[in-house]
Design goal:
Helix content: over 70%
Radius of gyration: 21 Å
Structural class: mainly alpha
Length: about 130
């Protein structure tokens, strides 16, 4: 009986430990947090004026909320549509130079995410096998 109680206690502790997650992205699931981080990064990289910051914050928050809803329902097409609509709204607020810088930064970040995903999933090994064929 004693061994069974210890086993159950250990199983419960293991379950709690696994439920904790790894802590990555903590807080980024909240649309407000995501919008704030986006606005901060855009201010840093694009040199937004205070007026632009306010407008960009509103746009980022609007689409962060919309994307969260789309993500929760699993509608990827809606997220893509939201991305295009957000970009159109940003074009009304940002200068052409700022939009150009933003697009370049987006391409750069996409490449970084792709590289992280490739190394995380072992994509390099898969590419080597395809090249060998």
């Amino acid at each position: 009986m004693k061994k069974m109680m210890i086993t159950l206690a250990l199983a419960a502790l293991a379950h709690v430990a696994l439920a904790q997650g790894n802590g990555k992205g903590k807080g980024m699931k909240m649309p407000e947090t995501r919008a704030q981080k986006q606005t901060e990064m855009m201010t840093k990289h694009l040199g937004l004026s205070p007026e632009q910051q306010g407008k960009v914050q509103e746009i980022n928050l609007k689409y962060a909320k919309m994307n969260q809803e789309a993500f929760d329902t699993g509608v990827k097409q809606q997220i893509k549509a939201n991305r295009a609509a957000r970009e159109a709204e940003l074009e009304q607020v940002l200068s052409p130079e700022q939009m150009s810088t933003l697009k370049a930064k987006q391409v750069e970040m996409k490449a970084v995410r792709k590289e992280k995903k490739k190394t995380k999933t072992g994509g390099d090994a898969l590419e080597m096998e395809e090249d060998d064929l």
